[in-house]
Structure formats: structure tokens, C-alpha cells
Amino acid sequence: MSVPGWFRIENAALPWYQRGPEHWVWPLQCVVCGAVLAFFWRHYEFKPWRGLGLAVLLGCMGIVCWIAPNIIFHHYSLTEGWWKHLGVMDRPDGFDPTILDSHPAGKTASIFMRFVRMVVIVPLVEELFWRGFLMRYIVAEKRGIDWRRVPFGTHHWLSFVIVTTGVTIIHNTEDWAAAFVWGALMYWLAVRTKSLGACVVMHAVGNLILGIYVLQTRQWGFW
After folding, report:
1. Model confidence pLDDT, tens digit, residues 112-124
2. What percent of the chain has pLDDT over 90?
3. Cα separation of 195 and 201, whole Å?
């Protein structure tokens, strides 16, 4: 997430790839991460594919919790105060595709790759790590066994705390409250369904809805 900042130069006179490097850095990340995922695909186990309806429902619920503070901010025409720490604030600054308005084809491609990143790459990478690996690794450490012997979805309160806290703090501080709720819902889904595939579906659905919301409202800060 921080890599585009290494290349960004704040100068309106400069070309888009210097003012908005995320428009080429993030597609490059998609290609690299997608290639790694494909190379190791045979090592992943998403089955059993069950609880998908619940996954879709929780994805919708979780992302509503995520964007509700922003909706409240605009609905009540609030000014920013202490409540911004709960996400009740304006979110205009972020991945702004309008920087490519003079390059229509490039703008379309950039938006498309943004959705590929958030609906395909991110759900796979994050769920493989948080739920597929770390959640099981913590349980294995407590039991003194190899983490691969821990069935997916095995519950342990220490695992819940560490994984959900980790999911929370990798996001912007204004999203921490929503990210904690999201992480808790995802953890429960993993324990309930014992399905990594269901977790990926929930993540993909939530990110898809968020992307549509961002395009409709131009609240680029969610991106």
C-alpha cells in the first residue's frame, strides 16, 4: 500500500504516472501477486465450498458497517470532530481515476485493474495469510504441533485476538473500528464453515460493494 508513495511527486504539471503512481504500481502488484498465487495454487485448499450464502450475507453486512460512518457524515452534513476516529469523516483523497480523464482507455484499464486487485488478488492473499496460515499457526504454537495439522477454522481465543487485531491495524486508523468488526465477522465465518473458500467469497463480495460505492460517491479515500 505504501509503495506508490515512493514514486509520487505532488506537482499538477507533471504527467499522471508521477502524480498518481498507484495507477501503474498496483496493476504491477496484481501481475506479480497473481503469478505467485498461480505458481503455488496446488498448495491451497479452499474446499469444502459451503456456507457461501452466509459468506455473501456477512460480506454485505461487514461492508455496510465499513461505509456507514461515511454515509452518516454526509447525510447529516457534519464537520470533522473526534468522531473521525470512528470513520465519520469525508474521504476525498485516495486512488482517484479522474486523474486519467484525458486518457479514457487508460482510465478504464486502471479502474478494471483496481477491481481485479480488490475483488480477486486481495481476498486470496489476505485470507490465505490471516485465516489459512496465521489463525492455524497460533493454535499450533499453543499445542506444540505443526501448523499444517491444525484443521482450518479451529477456534482459539488467542488466535482470535491476534488475527483480528492484525487485520485491524493494517488499515487506516479511521477504519479501525470497522476493520475490527469485519475481522471478527470473518473469523466467525471461518470457525462456522471451516471453509477458506467461504472466507475468500465474503472478502470478494465486500470489496466489490465497496468499489461500487466509491465509484458512485467519489469517496476515493476508501481506496
Report:
1. 999 999 999 999 9
2. 84
3. 10
The model carries a pTM of 0.93
- CB 183, CB 199: distance < 8 Å: no
Angle between helix 176-193 and helix 196-217 axes, rounded to 10 deg: 150
Q: Which amino acid is at 112?
A: F
What is the CB-side half-sphere exposure of residue 98 using CA atoms within 13 A?
10
pLDDT value at residue 7? 84
- How many CB atoms are located within 10 Å of the residue 62 CB? 24
How many Cα neighbours within 13 Å face the side chain of 70? 20
For 53, half-sphere exposure in the C-beta direction (CA atoms, 13 angstrom radius) is 0
Q: What is the mean pLDDT of the chain?
A: 94
The model's pLDDT over 36-70, given as tens digits with 9 standing for 90+, comes to 999 999 999 999 999 999 999 999 999 999 999 99
Residue 114, CA distances (Å) to 16, 32, 101, 121 in order: 16, 14, 16, 10
Torsion of CA 215, 74, 66, 204, to 10 degrees: -10
Separation between Cα atoms, residue 134 and residue 63, nearest integer Å: 23
Output phi, psi for 89, to 5 deg.
Answer: -165, 170
> What totals of helices (H) and strands (E) does the chain contain, helices first?
9, 0
pLDDT on residue 44: 94
- What angle separates helix 157-169 from helix 135-143, to the nearest 10 degrees? 140
Contact partners, residue 42, CB within 8 Å, separation at least 6 = none
